[in-house]
Amino acid sequence: MAELEIRDLTIRVDGSDILNGVTLDLEKGKTLALMGPNGSGKSTLAYAIAGHPAYEITGGQILFNGEDIADWTPDERNRAGVFLAMQYPVEVPGVSLTNFLRTAVNARLDEDKPVREFMGDLRTAMSDLQIDESFLQRSVNEGFSGGEKKRFEILQMALLKPQIAVLDETDSGLDVDALRVVSEGIDSLRGPDLGVLVITHYTRILRYVTPDEVHVMLDGRIVASGGPELADELEDHGYEHYVVSA
Amino acid sequence: MTTSIDTATPGVATEPTPQPTLDTLDEAHLASQSRDTGEPSWMADRRQQALSTWSGQSWPDRKQDEFWRNTPFARLVDVGRPLITGADHDGDHTVELAVGVVDHLDAPAATVTIVDGDLLDVRVDQSWADQGLVVVGLRDAAAGPWAGIVSEHLGSLTTTGHGSGADEDRTISANDAAWDAGVFVYVPAELEVKAPIGIQAHVTRPGVHQPRILVKAEHHATARVVLEHVGGDLGDVERTSRVKAPAVVNEVVEVIARDSAQVDVVSVNEHGDDVAYLALQKAAVHRDATVRHLSVTLGGATVRIRPEADLVGPGASAVYSGIYFTDEGQHFDVQPYMRHLAGHTTSNVLYKGALQGDSRTVFRGNVFIHKDAKGSDTQEDNRNLILTKGARADSTPFLEIECADITAGHGSATGQIDARNLFYLQARGIERADALRLIVLGFFNEVLDRIDMPVVAARAQAAIEGEIAMTDLDRVTVSEVAPNTPD
Question: Which residues of A touch B438 (CB under 8 A)?
Fold first, then answer.
């Protein structure tokens, strides 16, 4: 059984149906890529999995380890092991990055990790992602560049050790060097205990984070599925082919 | 502080004639009080002069006085309360004094304890005293070698002066005429007193308390004053109306910062629910001097605080900040006023408030830029966070600018907790209640970061946590949730 099972999911946002019956399985140890043009519903799926209150489940199910999580709050989902790296991480003014991370880690691991140990883990993870220590003095995402925000998302993923990670356009807005650092960071976290759903518009992140499966989403449905070669086809032909045949 | 003191039993009148109230000040009473306390004649004259100003005024009316528009004085301030009389040490009534931030100051240069209009205790660190720091009762100062300085500056920023205070309202002339416990702080030229000077004023009995503080820092001097108001949970004291607190604290603080002086004033208000607190805390900032003012307003039934700066010398600057947090039944009115009266003066104003329950805050931020204040720079911001339904925040920045060659910015925002922030923290496993706590503390951190007094910041933070702990977090409303992306 896959850890995350999406069953015929329909989602309504602001009164319109954005997902129209999506079925997808993600198990630990696997990496899936979800590709599609803007407006196809990729991010909607990501937020629905994370439990954003604006995304209403109108049909189908999201199962995590076999349990329907529709009624779970976002924090319950995260503590259970579902992580969303956001496309547009928000600034949380005045909340120090260190305090935030420590609170989050303690919540997820349900323990009060000694400060020394936590700071050690934090410094290692920051160094892996080439995040300067001066960030420890800052507030969550405040004044971060786009690239810094994305690195910070992956830093949190490293510290929170999820079972399932959904990466929503983590590659967007990154220059080549930043993309490499972030992608290598993601790649290093992959392993038998982590399932990853990489949501992207382009294939470039997939050169670093090779997927086991590629799914194509259009108009709130999955219209094609295949192996890594499907991503290369999309690179060559774009999404127009599916628009015509859909 | 754990000192117990004797005070008169509340409600037992010991005077043969009734003690005047805030509404019935009279010449004979003031004169006899001046005589009994050994005030010099010029000070007695000044009180009489203020009394005649007071006689010609009426109490603030929200319809007449735009600065009182949002605070109904007649409804909230009990002017019929008698002026507090000094503690009667023959009585057997003892009270435990509240402990506050002043009690936790690290190696203070001086501490002053005021209880119910009495100057109970003044202590000055010997090494600072040897270097010339003066912290003494205002009456003693006026009768001693500092008479000239006191005479020059006392009232120089209020009705008895000729500056911007000349058209002050009646609450100020009442203090000018009948202030009770007075404190004089004097820092001679070039003395940098970086250790804090703590002044703690306690309310343990109903009545009208009128503290008066005069601070003068000479050129290139440094002073850091922590002024704290505590007490005021008076138990079963009869009220003339439900919203009229039985204790009224009507305070005036004047700060004179001479050329290149650096003066910090931190005003912490943790009054209990039985106090209406009115305060004018005003500085005259001379050439290249800087005055930083921080108000932490957490207690009291009614609070109207006016942190003001007259930037009178070229290059003078004022950094004024504050936080306030209201809960059920509280009414806080915060009115900073920056007057740019000379060229190249700067002011930076930032106040943040959170509200919960049926409570109300008013922020009126005034900036005046005189035609001679070329090259001046002002920035003024107010942010309010409405935590639960029923609370109301009014926020109005006023800029009066006579001079074109200046930089002025202002901002005002009142809203709920941002749903995006809440979702982000929750998506990281942090429970809603903890996430709300982090967001509210974070909201205030921007202000608290402006003071480098760890004791005060820690106290303020603890007080904010205390307010949040009182909040029914299930009732906290957040901004409307919008989808995060169009996709």
Answer: 92, 95, 99-100, 103
**Residue B392 falls inside a structural domain:** no
Domain residues for B31?
A: 27-312
Of B429, B442, B486, the CB nearest to A92: B442
Nearest CA in chain B to A55: B483
Task: Return the sign of the alpha-carbon dihedral for residues B121, B126, B128, B129.
Answer: positive
Per residue of chain B (487 residues), give pLDDT as tens.
444 444 444 444 454 568 999 999 999 999 999 999 999 999 999 999 999 999 999 999 999 899 999 999 999 999 999 999 866 544 555 678 888 899 999 999 999 999 999 999 999 999 999 999 999 999 999 999 999 999 999 999 998 666 777 789 999 999 999 999 999 999 999 999 999 999 999 999 999 999 999 999 999 999 999 999 999 999 888 999 999 999 999 999 999 999 999 999 999 999 999 999 999 999 999 999 999 999 999 999 999 999 999 999 999 999 999 999 999 999 999 999 999 999 999 999 999 999 999 999 999 999 999 999 999 999 999 999 999 999 999 999 999 999 989 999 999 999 999 999 999 999 999 999 999 999 999 999 999 988 888 889 998 999 898 888 888 778 888 888 777 654 4
Picking from A12, A13, A75, A217 by the largest number of B CB atoms within 10 A of its own CB, the best residue to mutate is A75
Is residue B240 one of the residues assigned to a domain? yes
**Assigned domain for B441 exists:** no
**Distance of alpha carbon A23 from alpha carbon A46, whole angstroms:** 13
Query: For A45, which residue in chain B has the nearest alpha carbon?
Result: B487
Question: For chain B, what is the domain count?
Answer: 1
**Which residues are B408's β-sheet partners?**
B378
- Domain contains B351: no
Distance CA A128, CA A183 (A): 11
Structure token digits, residue A187:
């790649």
Q: Helices B454-470 & B432-448, crossing angle to 10 degrees?
A: 150
